[in-house]
Amino acid sequence: MSFVVATEKLTKRYGDRAVVQDLDLRIPEGSVYGFLGPNGSGKSTTMKMLLSLIRPTSGHAEVFGREMTRATRRDLLGGIGSLIESPPGYAHLTGRENLRIVQRLLGLTDQQVDHAVRLVRLQDQLDKKVRQYSLGMKQRLGIAMALARQPKLLILDEPTNGLDPAGIEEIRSLLRRLADSGVTVMVSSHLLGEVDRTATVLGILSQGRMIFQGSRAELFSAATPDVLITCTDPSQAHHVLADGFGTALENRSVVRLPGADDTTTARAVAALVGARIGVHGVRREEQSLEDVFMGLTAGGGL
Predict the structure, then answer these.
(1) Contact, 285 vs 227, CB < 8 A?
(2) Residue 251: its pLDDT value, please?
(3) Average pLDDT for 204-226
(4) How far apart are CA 90 and CA 100, in angstroms?
(5) How far apart are CA 64 and CA 76, in angstroms?
(6) E-state strands within 137-200
(7) Which of 28, 40, 198, 253 has the most CB atoms at less than 10 Å from its CB?
């Protein structure tokens, strides 16, 4: 597999505090990489190190197969577009005027700018003052500025933050189109459901460390959801299983086995049958991405 971004033990410390620690990040070419983690977990710091806005304390980052250093920084950044923190743009100018500034600074052609504008579907709004833009339109303008140089890698920090559902759908559709066109996208977000519907690869940070990296299917297979057993006498079942299985009463007909694997579940069912308690059904609890995330990060909020 070809990786657009690969880091080795990437670490950033401020004094004795490690904000990012021993991070081995792998972003496959052509993917939408969903970067998740509680507030303060190191997501933004990691993105800034990839963009050479912050120097790592130790470790290194490779982009397009080359290490990001002072010597390579200028060349590598030419293939990267980014939107970090608030959207750029002068409010008293139109969208078109803002894009012309970027065009002159980067030496871009009209065709490059027009292509970026079409990608974000902002062509009918370019003659409005940016102060008249909705937050979603400002985000799209910022992404157009990032895309105008036709980057191979796009890094977006919380691009849907503060957007209404229509704005979120706009950004989600855009990220899918970009990936389909061959752009690799790294996106952080606190909206787990939106990342779940957009990302092809997930990375989860907790306290500056990577605790999971892989596909959605791999994430769910790594988690062990609770088992729910429907039986004739849940109170007695809870008593029978209490010592060896750590059960909890779910309701009048169901006993919960927290995080039980298949072997544990089979032993629990055998114990119930041995105690002459009728077992009507055994199933694993359905989990959302948020459920798995909360379990991995011990309930840490985003």
Answers:
(1) yes
(2) 65
(3) 83
(4) 12
(5) 8
(6) 153-157, 184-188
(7) 198
Closest CA to 115 of 154, 147, 78, 153: 147
Give how far the C-alpha of residue 272 lies from the chain's centroid of Cα atoms, to the nearest Å: 42
Give the separation between CA 202 and CA 169, rounded to whole angstroms. 19
Output the pLDDT for position 302: 43
Q: Which domains does the chain have, with CATH numbers?
A: 3-221 (3.40.50.300), 224-286 (3.30.70)
157-197 tens-digit pLDDT: 988 877 778 878 888 888 888 888 889 999 987 667 667 77
Provide the greatest CA pair distance for the chain.
Answer: 80
Q: Which conformational region is residue 4 in: left (phi greater than 0), alpha (psi within -120 to 50 degrees), or beta?
A: alpha
Question: CA neighbours within 13 Å on the CB side: how many for 3?
Answer: 15
Give pLDDT tens digits for 241-270: 887 776 666 667 788 888 788 888 999 999
**Number of neighbouring beta carbons within 10 Å of residue 51:** 20
The pTM for the full model equals: 0.77
Helix, strand, coil percentages, rounded to 5, for the chain: 40, 25, 35
Give one word for 107, left, alpha or beta, with left for phi > 0 and alpha for psi -120 to 50.
Answer: left
Burial letters for 20-36: b for 16+ Cβ neighbours within 10 Å, e otherwise?
Answer: bbebebbbbebbbbbbb
Between the alpha carbon of residue 182 and those of residues 169, 177, 204, 274, the distances in Å are 20, 9, 24, 58
